[in-house]
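Assess the record.
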Amino acid sequence: IIKKKIQDLRPESREILVVYGMTGIGKSCLINQILQDPSFVELTNRAIFWLNLSQHEDDALQLLFLDQNLRKALLILDDVKCRKIIEAFHCCRMIIITQDKDIVTPSNSIKFYQIVQGFSESESLELFKKSLNTDTLPSEASDIHNLCEGFPMLINMIGSFLHDSKEEALSDNREIWKSIKEELPLLQSYKDEIVFMIRRNEGKLSQIYQTYFHDLAIFPKHVNIKPDILIELWDVSSY
């Protein structure tokens, strides 16, 4: 359905498709997967642009899209949180990926698509298999998918954790699978589950890299921290 909606976006009308849903549900992954189809190369005259701008504007980029050669282009604005971003770049057909559909003013040229479902069981299991480079998984893998309800961000984090614990994950005792399965039901929300898996992944790091991780985690997304400022903040001799 969503692939057809993208194909039907008319460049002359600068139509917009708004893809919205909760954080981590897989909005960006889905759009990226769909756009791998070779048909979009011809449809967009080889002009597909993906920008993650959040609440930031870039005048130079805005001028770029005024080029007449890009009138058939497809522009994807990811993680959009500000209506001004949409207004600034609305010079060709666009896909807006956002958590909040209310930042877009409805009109005849705007279509909405809500993503409410995460990974299927087969997709989750395939991700676990790729993480471990194996063709077989214990029964707990399906149980973990069901406990996560296919929530993509959480499934990806578990896959990363299993990858870093590959030897233990592939052992016959299956303790690592059992521990994840037993602890997930004790958590109250997706946020708690994500924090739980972040801590599990963090625990695989050496002590010094855990320190670096904590240092990096304090910086807001998209903020450009200059090297000379980092030098003041960090003891660079330890690097």
In short: The beta strands are 16-20, 48-52, 74-78, 93-98, 110-114. Residues 152-164 form the longest helix (13 residues). The two ends are 49 Å apart (CA to CA).
